[in-house]
Amino acid sequence: MGKMHVLILAWWLFVVNESWTLAAVGNERTVSPRFRPAPTPEVTCKEHEYLHPSNKYCCEKCHPGYRKAEDCSGPNTRTGCEKCPNNTHTEVWNYSPNCQRCRTCDKTFGQITITQCQDKINTVCGCPEGKFKEPFGHKKFRCTACKLCTGGDVRKKCEFLTP
């Protein structure tokens, strides 16, 4: 490649807003990048990972029962996770900075606690024996007393039900 071709190529690269230099390698002259940031490859994280806020690498999510205290500091480093405090939980792998508050069974609707809240599971509410769940509102229920069917047709046997 002649000097004129190299100068035209260098000028063209400068015009397209790239910073390049000429480097002599043996008998050939090559154009190489200088002060050019590396292109950011698209990062794909695995199921139990999340994309670090820098968008450069993946961090492992926290196990159920834990919350994210701090992001990992780089590839192949651990995310800082802390166990959920009492009366809170996380049921899934997560990178939330907060654990969820435990559900409280609503005694005014006759609900009872079937399973206490633990770090990995929320409280499970139900109805006492002889009552059934009657849905109302969004994800709410009240416990209603079972009644004998008139006419003898039983649509559904009334029994102790869990969610």
Q: Describe it for me?
A:
The protein has 1 helix and 12 strands. The strands form 6 sheets. The protein has a two-stranded antiparallel sheet with strand order 1-2. The protein has 3 domains: 3-33, no CATH class; 49-101, Tumor Necrosis Factor Receptor, subunit A, domain 2 (Ribbon), CATH 2.10.50.10; 107-152, Tumor Necrosis Factor Receptor, subunit A, domain 2 (Ribbon). The chain has one helix at residues 3-15, and strands spanning 20-25, 28-33, 49-51, 58-60, 66-70, 80-83, 88-89, 100-101, 112-115, 124-126, 131-136, 140-145. The protein starts with a helix and ends in an 18-residue tail after the last strand. The chain is mostly beta strands.
What is the tally of beta strands?
12
User: What's the level 1 CATH class of the largest domain?
Assistant: Mainly Beta
Rounded average pLDDT: 80
- CATH topology of the largest domain, what is it called? Tumor Necrosis Factor Receptor, subunit A, domain 2
Query: How many individual domains?
Result: 3
The CATH architecture assignment of the largest domain turns out to be Ribbon
How many strands, which pairing sense, and closed or not: the largest β-sheet? 2 strands, antiparallel
**First-to-last CA distance:** 78 Å
From N to C, what is the helix and strand string? HEEEEEEEEEEEE
How many alpha or pi helices? 1
The CATH superfamily title of the largest domain? Tumor Necrosis Factor Receptor, subunit A, domain 2
- Helix content estimate: under 10%
**Taking Cα atoms only, what radius of gyration do you get, to the nearest Å?**
32 Å
